[in-house]
Design goal:
By secondary structure, this protein is α/β, with parallel strands linked by helices. It has 7 helices and 8 strands. The strands form 3 sheets. The chain has a 4-stranded parallel sheet with strand order 7-4-3-8, with helices on one face. Helix 5 packs across helix 6. The longest helix is centred in the middle third of the chain and has 38 residues. The two termini are 37 Å apart.
Amino acid sequence: MTKERNNLNPSADRQTLAVLETMEQSSQATQREIASRTGISLGLVNAIVKDLAKRGMIKIRQVPRRRLLYYLTPHGFAEKSALLLRVFRTVQHDYQQIRAQLFRQASGMKEKGICELAIHGDPFLLEIGCICCLELGIAVKALYTDNPYHVGDNVCGHIVGSAKDLKSDSATWLVDFSSLGLVRDHVVERSRLPESGELKEPAVS
């Protein structure tokens, strides 16, 4: 069964994990309530619940007022742990891929003699870019973003400024997902975990 689930995409793993987490927290939650808490459509929640029951991961018991109670079975708890591990590994893989590519970019700038610069780009990438510069001995003068919701954030000891204030005469490193061959929404979506997980969606808009 685990092998079968490994063939599914990370989003399916995360959705199943979110439903299981919600059921564990409240066995009395209706499918509509599960959909509301997880942000998954009601139709998809219904399909996931049917699949979980068919695979013996949950037991369903009917109570008065036509309500249903959902209980995780021992197999369900074991599979939930396996799902959580796979989601963590996906997030870790994304981070390592991003970090490796940004490190190569920063290394290329150092080889050109750039020893200090400003970093401009996606809030999700600014911190990773700072870490790469720190490891290479490149001084980061300032951080800038086009995202107004993250102007003023403290990243690696720098207050993120608005890109409108970026000076054109300073060396600037643009960090964005397109240059990494990645789709930002896909990476951010995979980084989401249920509230009980260790990782949460980065504060990006």
